[in-house]
């Protein structure tokens, strides 16, 4: 592509961009904003996007997934059948046609694909079946962010698998997982597959693929010694062995009520009592599917609502409102404790609480706490379990090594849906015994446009993006230092034709700009190998440069084609961290 007439509007500065990738994609002329969270992919950005798609397609096709293309407009009736017309939330874009019929702009395609397959497949003999598409999705995100990282219109690869039994689903899940590892490796991403919570979607088994980056919105607990990685909310606490629901220490003095006037936070109360926060216990009233539950964690720990929800096999968990707190404890949140509740509720305690000989707890009375509280003697605990959030420095649940926190960008997601959709949408097949059974399903997403931002976030320096060869918009950037010099132009034109004929993708900077401007743009755009045709063009000599390392060498124009494969390879080798 000749740069003189190309739509590559590079910018020296951009007014507002939260992250480096957003800034560089704007400045390099890859994307432009149309509205909040809505972006055009300019020719360079589109070429990167297409390369990402190609890698995804190759790996999907390899595991036998079949590509199709489903519509963006979804009749409301389908979403009502699944219950998500009401439950999906304000992210769902809804539109009305001229006959006042409602539609959703597809944010994901479980409903549509389930409807499709229930119409077309009715026997186990056609199973398993896996389909996928690469298609634009719409989500009215509360906070569209950082350009294409979180858009309201974005490109997703979504795959759906249909099975007659769980073993078959497990096999496909494994294949998808492996395909994702290949995809993200080929895309040059530094990533981890992390165990995640199944969330409101239901079903068992889910992994998120996280590109490691400080600008990520998710926090990952990662072991410094082994390859354990989990979403913080899922990370288990390494068992410390005690499941006892009563103190082993006998001589605990009787409960004593003390005034703690105007002390709201746990730190303030601990300071006032002259105790470390880990000697205090937080009593938190949760609502699990509407039922109040009192959760006890140590003062220096945080309760993990996902663990609470999973322990009680609930589907929705939240902190109790003030009214419920008052009804159960007769006081305000902040002074709640397990002793002398007005209304008996289920009490569950974290392991670390059960290990305390005596507890300091809220007195269910404003501005007061209880000292010397003993589990079993002063109140009853229904269950002791792992209920707290992991912290940096905690022991790895797998190997005992040290846990650290990293931020991640969710680039992909594999999910066992089970019969969540087939059951309610009555999508059934006949099994080998002629019995009707609901399909067992899996779904598997990749944020195709988000991936482009994640790659730019990980591969860059202060001058611009440094694309891995596999996704670079072009492999070679051919630049004349002086586009008015006939010798340079002649040699560059020869190379341009020769390299393209040899199958290389070449961006040819034939602009009559100053050399400094052209080099700055080349750094910004980040094509792996640069061929500079300058002062020595008359002698048939050019200069090769690697964008990533800055490494430079003179080379005769006739040698370039022979040398290029090696230079491209070196660009990727220096890529390996
Ligand atoms: P997030 O937690 O980031 O909102 P999600 O859990 O809603 O993601 P899924 O419904 O699993 O995402 O969608 C599959 C994939 O689509 C995600 O793994 C992510 O890579 C991508 N994705 C989701 N929302 C967006 C968005 N608003 N913009 C760009 N990509 C997105
Ligand atoms: Mg989301």
Structure description:
- The chain has about 575 residues and is an alpha+beta fold.
- The protein folds into 3 domains: about 190 residues, Bira Bifunctional Protein, Domain 2 (BirA Bifunctional Protein, domain 2, 2-Layer Sandwich), CATH 3.30.930; about 130 residues, Alpha-Beta Complex (YbaK protein); about 110 residues, Anticodon-binding domain (Rossmann fold), CATH 3.40.50.
- The protein is about 25% helix and about 30% strand.
- It is built from 15 helices and 31 strands.
- Strands 3, 7, 8, 9, 10, 11, 12, 21 and 24 form a 9-stranded mixed beta sheet that branches.
- A hairpin with a 5-residue loop joins β18 and β19.
- α2 packs antiparallel against α6.
- The longest helix has 21 residues.
- The two termini are about 30 Å apart.
- The relative contact order is 0.14.
- Bound molecules: adenosine-5'-triphosphate and magnesium ion.
List keywords for this structure.
577 residues, alpha+beta, BirA Bifunctional Protein, domain 2, YbaK protein, Rossmann fold, 9-stranded mixed sheet, 5-stranded mixed sheet, 15 helices, globular, binds magnesium ion
Topology:
Layout: H1 20-27, E1 31-35, E2 38-41, H2 43-62, E3 66-67, E4 73-75, H3 76-82, H4 84-87, E5 93-96, E6 102-105, H5 110-120, E7 129-138, E8 153-163, H6 166-186, E9 191-195, E10 206-212, E11 218-223, E12 229-231, E13 256-259, H7 266-273, E14 281-288, E15 291-298, H8 305-311, E16 317-319, H9 322-329, E17 346-350, H10 351-354, E18 359-362, E19 368-373, E20 383-385, E21 403-418, H11 420-424, E22 428-430, E23 436-438, E24 440-447, H12 448-458, E25 460-461, E26 464-465, E27 476-480, H13 486-501, E28 506-509, H14 515-525, E29 529-533, E30 541-546, E31 552-556, H15 560-573
Parallel strand pairs: 3-7, 15-17, 17-20, 27-28, 27-29
Antiparallel strand pairs: 1-2, 4-6, 5-6, 7-8, 8-24, 9-10, 10-21, 11-12, 11-21, 13-19, 14-15, 14-16, 18-19, 21-24, 22-23, 25-26, 29-30, 30-31
């Amino acid at each position: 592509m000749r740069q003189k007439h190309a739509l590559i509007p590079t910018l020296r500065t951009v007014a507002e961009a939260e992250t480096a990738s957003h800034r560089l994609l704007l400045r390099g002329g890859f994307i432009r904003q149309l509205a909040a969270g809505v972006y055009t992919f300019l020719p360079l950005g589109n070429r990167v996007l297409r390369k990402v798609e190609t890698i995804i397609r190759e790996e999907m096709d390899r595991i036998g997934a079949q590509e199709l293309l489903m519509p963006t407009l979804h009749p409301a009736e389908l979403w009502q059948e699944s219950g998500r017309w009401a439950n999906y939330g304000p992210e769902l874009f809804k539109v009305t046609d001229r006959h006042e019929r409602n539609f959703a702009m597809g944010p994901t395609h479980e409903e549509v694909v389930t409807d499709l397959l229930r119409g077309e497949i009715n026997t186990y003999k056609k199973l398993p079946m896996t389909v996928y598409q690469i298609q634009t999705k719409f989500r009215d995100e509360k906070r569209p962010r950082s350009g294409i990282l979180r858009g309201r219109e974005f490109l997703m690869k979504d795959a759906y698998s249909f099975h007659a039994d769980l073993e078959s689903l497990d096999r496909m899940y494994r294949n998808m997982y492996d395909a994702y590892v290949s995809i993200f490796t080929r895309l040059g991403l530094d990533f981890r597959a992390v165990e995640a919570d199944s969330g409101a979607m239901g079903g068992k088994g889910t992994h998120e693929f996280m590109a490691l980056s400080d600008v990520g919105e998710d926090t990952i607990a990662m072991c410094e010694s082994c390859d354990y990685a989990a979403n913080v909310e899922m990370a288990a606490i390494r068992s410390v062995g005690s499941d006892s629901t009563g103190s082993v220490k006998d001589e605990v003095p009787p409960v004593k009520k003390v005034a703690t006037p105007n002390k709201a936070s746990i730190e303030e109360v601990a300071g006032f009592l002259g105790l470390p926060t880990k000697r205090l216990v937080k009593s938190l009233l949760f609502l699990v599917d509407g039922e109040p539950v009192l959760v006890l964690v140590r003062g220096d720990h945080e309760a993990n609502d996902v663990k609470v929800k999973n322990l009680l096999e609930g589907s929705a968990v939240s902190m109790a409102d003030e009214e419920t707190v008052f009804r159960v404890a007769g006081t305000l949140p902040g002074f709640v404790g397990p002793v002398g509740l007005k209304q008996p509720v289920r009490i569950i305690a974290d392991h670390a609480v059960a290990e305390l000989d005596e507890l300091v707890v809220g007195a269910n009375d404003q501005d007061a706490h209880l000292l010397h509280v003993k589990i079993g003697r002063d109140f009853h605990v229904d269950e002791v379990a792992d209920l707290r959030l992991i912290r940096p420095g905690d022991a790895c649940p797998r190997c005992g090594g040290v846990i650290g926190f990293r931020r991640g960008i969710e680039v992909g997601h594999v999910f066992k849906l089970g019969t969540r959709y087939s059951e309610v949408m009555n999508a059934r097949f006949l099994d080998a015994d002629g019995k009707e059974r609901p399909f067992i399903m899996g779904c598997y997403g990749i944020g195709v446009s988000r991936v482009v931002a994640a790659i730019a976030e990980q591969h860059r320096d202060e001058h611009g993006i440094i694309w891995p060869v596999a996704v670079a918009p072009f492999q070679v950037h051919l630049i004349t230092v002086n586009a008015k010099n006939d010798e340079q132009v002649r040699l560059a034109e020869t190379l341009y034709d020769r390299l393209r004929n040899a199958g290389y993708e070449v961006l040819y900077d034939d602009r009559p700009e100053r050399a400094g401007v052209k080099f700055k743009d080349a750094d910004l755009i980040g094509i792996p190998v640069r061929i500079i045709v300058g002062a020595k063009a008359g002698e048939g000599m050019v200069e090769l440069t690697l964008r990533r390392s800055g490494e430079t060498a003179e080379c005769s124009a006739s040698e370039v084609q022979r040398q290029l494969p090696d230079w491209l390879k070196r660009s990727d080798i220096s890529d390996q961290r």
